[in-house]
Specification:
Layout (H helix, E strand, L loop, with lengths): L4 H16 L2 E10 L5 H14 L10 E2 L4 E5 L2 H10 L5 E9 L4 H14 L10 E7 L8 H18 L5 E2 L6 E8 L2 E7 L21 H10 L9 E3 L6 H11 L37 E5 L2 H13 L6 E5 L7 H10 L8 E4 L9 H15 L6 E6 L4 H5 L5 E7 L2 E9 L1
Parallel strand pairs: 5-6, 5-7, 9-10, 9-12, 10-11, 12-13
Antiparallel strand pairs: 1-3, 1-4, 2-3, 4-8, 7-8, 13-15, 14-15
Helix pairs in contact: 4-5, 6-7
């Protein structure tokens, strides 16, 4: 059976597209976060840059999508982001992009780009790994793309005298591959792991809140760390309270022995020190973490200690309904913190253990309890449609946020 004219034309069009594909060298710093957090990520990075010493002034970022910021690559800014930026999930150094629509021209693009690249992003003998994200629309599968990029990086580096090898378990460099609007980008993951894996949390609840998302909530609620106490009435393993005080002081993200992988890169290694210090060491934030369950409360205490903020997080074990305003105000005074204003911030249960009537009662009681704190604000990440009606009142801010696979909403109330 012969091939139809239509098939021949389609194949010729595909071949022409492949032949036209070109690769481009990039030099960009990319902060990747949750959908809808561009403004939050930019605000935090601007705050950090204002206190840090950068070689050049941090420019306004280019927003790409709802959860990605792009800056010109500058080593000091890259080191700052990967050490201190808490609201991002990845910090990437964008190296190359290709508009190739098939694996063969993609390989050719990358080999040529790596061969001609004189930047110090690698060392002979380094092991590499490659991970692909959002590449479903590419003509080949994710595993094929990963294999092609690995081969191109190794072969291109070999042509410039740099011997690399594949090491998926303990790589010196992790490469990140993403498809955006038909363009495939190849980047170095500067942390070598998700930024949320700080190192202080060893255990969590049934659905522990992602550390980077907790930092996003703190930013969205506009917590004033110098002046406002923070209460999480259902603290679980303590992530919100720990992130709030850590962000207030701009503590380093990583808890030893964890450290960013890029500390070994030739072009960045001189910018890191063994024990980085808080950027706002003069700030003394204060948080109260209240938790009912004994195991979760013990985890909260342990995590705060591992994060080095146990002196800033006051743990209370019990039902939040038994935590009185008098007790809260006394604890705040003991920590030299005024309680005239403050922030209640929490991620309430959404139905993993409680039936709907129990949840409605919990949300209603939470609303009554919060309104004892007049002049404060209350903010929540919720994933249950019954919350708003049961809590009562009208939120000042209502913003959709992703929480793992859950469709969640951030709510902020004035009390």
């Amino acid at each position: 059976m012969g091939v139809s004219d239509t098939s021949l034309r389609a194949e010729a069009k595909w071949d022409n597209l492949a032949a036209m594909s070109t690769g481009i060298a990039l030099d960009q710093l990319r902060l990747v976060g949750f959908s809808g957090t561009n403004k939050v990520m930019a605000g935090e990075f601007s705050r950090l840059a204002g206190r840090a010493t950068l070689a050049t002034k941090l420019p306004e970022p280019r927003k790409q999508g709802l959860g990605s910021l792009v800056y010109p690559f500058e080593p000091h800014a890259a080191a700052l982001a990967v050490q201190y930026h808490r609201t991002s999930t990845r910090v990437l150094w964008d190296l190359y992009e290709s508009r190739a629509v098939r694996l063969e021209p993609l390989y050719d693009d990358l080999v040529d780009l790596v061969r001609r690249d004189e930047r110090g992003w690698g060392m002979p003998g380094y092991g590499i790994s490659v991970a692909a994200h959002g590449v479903e629309e590419f003509a080949a599968g994710g595993r094929q793309i990963v294999g092609t990029v690995k081969n191109a990086l190794i072969d291109g580096a070999a042509q410039r005298g740099m011997d690399l090898h594949v090491d998926p378990d303990n790589p010196d460099m992790s490469f990140d591959v993403r498809l955006r609007e038909g363009v495939l980008s190849v980047s170095i993951d500067l942390a070598g792991r998700p930024m949320s894996q700080r190192g202080y949390r060893q255990t969590g609840g049934i659905a522990p809140l992602n550390e980077s998302l907790a930092a996003v909530l703190v930013m969205l609620a506009r917590h004033q760390a110098r002046a406002e106490p923070l209460i999480d009435p259902m603290a679980g393993s303590g992530t919100i309270a720990i992130e709030a005080v850590s962000m207030g002081r701009a503590n380093p993200v990583w808890i030893a022995p964890r450290k960013p992988a890029c500390m070994g890169l030739p072009s960045l290694r001189s910018l890191f020190i063994d024990k980085p210090q808080p950027l706002f060491a003069d700030t003394q934030p204060f948080a109260i973490a209240n938790e009912l369950k004994e195991e979760a409360f013990a985890s909260c205490q342990d995590h705060a200690s591992r994060a080095g903020v146990d002196h800033l997080v006051h743990g209370v074990r019990g039902d939040f309904r038994d935590l009185t305003t008098t007790a809260v105000y006394e604890v705040c005074r003991d920590h030299q913190m005024s309680a005239a204003t403050g922030l209640i911030l929490s991620n309430p249960p959404y139905g993993e253990r409680l039936d709907s009537p129990e949840l409605v009662t919990l949300y209603r009681d939470l609303g009554r309890w919060c309104r004892q704190f007049r002049g404060w604000r209350a903010a929540f990440l919720i994933a249950n449609p019954d919350f708003e009606r049961a809590f009562g009142g009208r939120p000042r801010i209502k913003k959709p946020l992703s929480n793992a696979q859950l469709r969640s909403t951030f709510l902020l109330y004035d009390l």
